[in-house]
Design goal:
4-stranded mixed sheet, TIM Barrel, alpha/beta
C-alpha cells in the first residue's frame, strides 16, 4: 500500500470528506481489505450498532412496452410485440393482495416507457390502490416521471404534485445507470440524460417525495465515470437531503445489446460498494445487491459499508430477463444477516423499523 493510499484511508476512517481524485485512487488501488475496513468504520459512524435492515415488498413491472430500447436492457419490448404486456388493474391488485398476505408493506412499480399511458392512468391506478390497500407506493423512476410529464404535456413539478396527491409515496432511483452523458449515449441514447435525471429527483424532493439513488456499473464506463456519478449524487444530496439510500449494482449482460462488454467481478463490486460508502458521507443507507451478486457476496458486503439488504423481492422481472434469478425469502435473509454477526431489522420504505425477527 502506498503512503498516499494510506493517507486517504486514514482520512476516510477519521470521518473527513474525501474528494473525487481520492475516491478514484481508492478504486484504482485495489486495496480491498483496507478500503473495506474504512467503509465499515464510516458505516458505523453514521449508523452505530449491528442493525441490518431489509424490507418485504414486491416489484410490479406493470408493462414491458418501451420506446427507448436501451442496449443494456433485456426486459423491454416495442409496442405491438407479441411478447409485450400491460397488466390490468385486477392483475396488479392480485399481486398486491399476495404481497400483503406474505407480510409485505410496499410495492415498487416500474415499467417501460409506454407511449400511450398519460398521467390519468397513474392517478386512477394509484387512487384505486390506496382505496383498497394500506400499502406504500414506492414507484416510478425518473425516466418514467419525465415520460409521463411529456406524454401528458405537463410541467414536471405539476406532474409530481398530482402523482403524490393520487398516492405516490416515494421514488426509486432507477434509470440512473451512470450519470455521465457520454456513457449514457452509448448505453441508452433515447433515455433522459444525466441532468434530467437529477432534475426529476430535485423536483420530486422539492415536492416532498423522498427517493433512493442507484448506480449500475460494470459495462462501458470507466472508474472515473463511477466517481463522477457519485459526485453528482453527493452534490444533490448536499442540496436536498432527499436520498434515503444508495444502491450500487452490477450490469447484467445476458440477452442485452451489450452482451460481452461486462467488466465487473465480485471484488470490483465490493470495492465500488466500499468507496460509495466512504464518499457518500451524506447518504444514510447503502444497500447490498443480493439480486445481482447472490446472498454470500451480499453477506460480505455488510463488512464493506452496507447496512441494508434491500427487499425480499417477492417478484422481479427486469434483472431476471438478463439471466440472473437469485431468490431469497424472508427467513433466508434473516438467517444470512444473523450468520454475518448482525441483527436483522425489518423496515418500511421510509427506513422505519417495524419488526425485529
Amino acid at each position: 500500500m502506498t503512503m498516499t493510499i494510506e493517507k486517504i484511508i486514514a482520512k476516510a476512517a477519521a470521518g473527513t470528506r474525501i474528494n473525487e481524485s481520492e475516491a478514484l485512487m481508492l478504486l484504482e488501488s485495489r486495496e480491498l481489505i483496507a478500503v473495506g475496513q474504512a467503509a465499515d468504520a464510516a458505516r458505523n459512524r453514521l449508523l452505530p450498532g449491528d442493525d441490518v435492515t431489509f424490507i418485504v415488498d414486491r416489484n410490479i413491472n406493470y408493462t414491458n412496452f418501451c420506446i427507448t430500447g436501451c442496449d443494456f436492457c433485456a426486459f423491454h419490448r416495442p409496442l405491438g410485440s407479441d411478447e409485450g404486456y400491460l397488466l390490468s388493474h385486477e392483475e396488479i391488485f392480485d399481486k398486491i393482495e399476495e404481497t400483503i398476505e406474505l407480510g409485505g408493506t410496499g410495492i415498487m412499480m416500474q415499467g417501460g416507457l409506454h407511449p400511450k399511458l398519460d398521467i390519468a392512468y397513474y392517478e386512477d391506478l394509484f387512487r384505486a390502490i390506496k382505496e383498497r390497500y394500506d400499502i406504500t407506493i414506492h414507484s416510478l423512476s425518473p425516466p418514467e416521471i419525465h415520460h409521463i410529464a411529456k406524454v401528458s404535456r405537463l410541467p414536471l413539478d405539476e406532474t409530481l404534485i398530482r402523482l403524490k396527491a393520487a398516492g405516490l409515496d416515494s421514488l426509486p432511483g432507477g434509470g440512473a445507470e451512470i450519470l455521465v452523458n457520454e456513457v449514457r449515449r452509448r448505453m441508452s441514447p433515447r433515455k433522459i440524460d444525466a441532468d434530467t435525471w437529477l432534475a426529476v429527483m430535485r423536483a420530486a424532493q422539492d415536492a416532498g417525495l423522498k427517493s433512493t439513488a442507484t448506480m449500475m456499473f460494470g459495462s462501458v464506463e470507466s472508474l472515473a465515470d463511477r466517481v463522477e456519478h457519485l459526485r453528482r449524487v453527493r452534490e444533490l444530496q448536499d442540496e436536498t437531503s432527499g436520498f434515503r439510500a444508495f444502491i450500487p449494482w452490477t450490469f447484467q449482460e445476458t440477452n442485452t445489446g451489450l452482451e460481452g462488454t461486462t467488466s465487473s467481478s465480485g471484488i470490483d463490486y465490493l470495492m465500488t460498494l466500499a468507496v460509495s460508502r466512504i464518499y457518500l458521507d451524506n447518504v444514510p443507507s447503502i444497500q447490498a445487491s443480493w439480486v445481482t451478486q447472490g446472498l454470500k457476496v451480499a453477506q460480505v458486503s455488510l463488512k464493506f459499508g452496507a447496512n441494508d439488504m434491500g427487499s425480499t423481492m417477492i417478484e422481479e422481472n427486469v434483472v431476471a430477463a438478463a439471466g440472473v434469478s437469485y431468490r431469497v425469502g424472508r427467513d433466508e435473509l434473516v438467517a444470512a444477516i444473523r450468520a454475518a454477526g448482525r441483527r436483522p431489522v425489518q423496515r418500511d420504505h421510509a427506513y422505519n423499523p417495524i419488526d425485529y425477527p
